[in-house]
Amino acid sequence: MSNSANTLPDRVPVLIAGGGPVGLTLSALLARQGVASHVIEADAAYCTGSRAICMSRRSQEILGWIGADAALVVKGLSWVGGRSYYRDTEVLHFQMPSEPTQRFAPMVNIQQYFVEQYAHEAALACGALSDVRWNHRVAAVRPDADTVMVDVVSETGTRQVCADWVVACDGGRSTVREQLGLQLQGMQYDGKYVIVDIRQKTRRAVERLAWFDPPSNPGSTILMHRQPEDVWRIDYQIRDDEDPAEAVKPENVLPRVQSHLAMIGENAPWEVLWISIYNAKCLTLASYRQGRVLLAGDAAHLVPIFGVRGLNSGLDDAGNLAWKLARVLEGRSDAGLLDSYSVERVHATHENMAYGAKSTEFMAPPDFAYALMREATLRLARNDASVRALINPRQSTPVSYAESPLNMAEGTAPWTSDLAAPGQPAPEATMPQGRHLTQSFGAGFVCLVFCSDDAPDLSPLADLSALGITMQPVPPSCAQAWQRYGLGTGVDAALVLVRPDGYVMGRWPGVDGVAMRKAIADSGVWP
Ligand SMILES: Cc1cc2nc3c(=O)[nH]c(=O)nc-3n(C[C@H](O)[C@H](O)[C@H](O)COP(=O)(O)OP(=O)(O)OC[C@H]3O[C@@H](n4cnc5c(N)ncnc54)[C@H](O)[C@@H]3O)c2cc1C
Fold first, then answer.
1. Domain residues of the chain, as ranges?
2. Are strands 11-17 and 157-168 parallel, antiparallel or unpaired?
């Protein structure tokens, strides 16, 4: 990858520290909002080795906002469920919610460097609005009330750049976070996992596979995921008394992998591509906004990989932040809007950590009592279907912002469902001509107009369009949407306001727009 000369402007609207998957996606999202950003990336190219592999449906939607979904779906391996085994007996076969007409599979397996590549290509497609500088490093940040001075180091020397806003996407060892004197708070688990990628051809279905105490590696827990290009990702737990440095040596890894492949009948030749070691962490900052510096992705939080909420939550950070930062930069909203980014995403991290902790504790019990409880659960699950829910790995799903300060007050209308209540991710639904409702989201505000007319007269709502809100009629023939958005007995016409990041902001019975206009006037988002 070529490295551009150090010709950074003296003054930039947005400087993104770190061109990993979150920084690159954020830059492309901002560009789609018409905002220029400069990405400063210390490395010369995309990441190497084995990191995130499971991309959630929500992440696919977010990547869809920048046009990076098609490449991801073509390259990736989609899946809907998995199997867990206790010793050599299957104790769980789970399926995530999915429909034949769905836009995206619940999960796609793909190596993280492909996600970075597709996000970068989406950024490049935005021309001058996204400028990525490889081999450039953020060395220092000095925020004041109106700007942030940033020292950027490259092979041609150090350059001072004055940014209106800095977003720290520089990962778990964030320089920006350290420069601000901030520390992640929380805990980390003792249990250690060896992460191994191997290349081996297989005809096995794409599923999440987990073994507890398998005969191939007694006492251990093993996870297997297929990835594109004939790659298996294998994660296995090492014993508490094992030296991690010894555990990652090929002479110790390869026999364990071979023993397990033999046990499950995968006998094709294989080669090892990657070995590393991992231990789960639940760490976060208390706030993701420090004046003119915002923090996103691993720079802001580290969550356990079990439940796959790391990169998936980082992309959600980017999706939440991009439209808010764009509005503030363009003077369409007050800077206070950015506080809601922190409130919503810190809440999401706490939810993700709670789920991730449950999954981690099941994968690697933290103490003897928990280990006994897990064994009892696994034994019972062999014959008792009701116990199997306890083993279900609870993969990443979008977090509700039910307490968000942006939610607009609810009236007393008798909605038949709360799936589309304020603060919820706007439900997906099929639309005419094979379209999906979520394809309308991701750029600006959308007002869903539910009414009995197939071609409603929207002119009475023209003043709302002038605020940058796009009207999206949803006729009764879109029965799935009517049902999921809670229309039916008692509500036969409604307006639902959806934020640019696909979350419901408010909903009102009727289509005259009176209550919605009042809520907008009171919201502070359109000052
Ligand atoms: C083994 C493993 C498995 C995982 N599996 C999953 C999974 O299946 N699903 C999932 O959602 N998540 C998973 N994760 C988590 C996921 O990898 C991270 O959450 C994700 O990489 C975070 O992206 P990021 O862009 O915030 O940070 P990073 O990917 O760490 O990127 C940060 C970037 O900043 C750059 N940088 C650092 N310092 C500076 C500086 N001073 N100046 C300029 N640039 C700098 C770095 O070079 C890097 O490119 C996994 C992680 C591991 C380790």
1. 11-76+108-185+282-356, 432-523
2. parallel
The pick from 77, 112, 115, 355 for probing ligand 1's pocket by mutation, whose C-beta has the most ligand atoms within 8 angstroms, reads 112
Q: Is the CB of 177 under 6 A from ligand 1?
A: no
Q: To which residue do tokens 């708070």 refer? A: 185
| Least confident residue range of 22-36, 92-106, 461-475 | 92-106
Question: Do the beta carbons of residue 100 and residue 218 sit within 8 Å?
Answer: no
Task: Give the closest residue to 177 by CA, choosing from 350, 347, 293, 57.
Answer: 293
- The architecture CATH gives domain 11-76+108-185+282-356: 3-Layer(bba) Sandwich (3.50)
Q: Give the pLDDT mean for 221-231.
A: 96
Q: Does pLDDT of 454 surpass 90?
A: no
DSSP 508: E
Q: Cα separation of 294 and 169, whole Å?
A: 9
Q: Which among 173, 298, 316, 321 is the best mutation to test ligand 1's pocket, defined by most ligand atoms within 8 Å of the CB?
A: 298
Nearest CA to ligand 1 atom 14: 52
Distances (CA, A) of 356 to 188, 277, 526: 12, 18, 37
Q: Is the pLDDT of residue 239 over 50?
A: yes
pLDDT over 80 at 391, yes or no:
no
Residue 411 has pLDDT above 90, yes or no: no
> What's residue 159's pLDDT?
94
> pTM of the predicted model, to two decimals?
0.96
Highest averaged pLDDT of the listed ranges 3-17, 18-32, 94-108, 464-478: 18-32
CATH superfamily of 432-523: Glutaredoxin (3.40.30.10)
CA of 17 to the centre of ligand 1 (A): 13
Residue with tokens 């789960």: 280
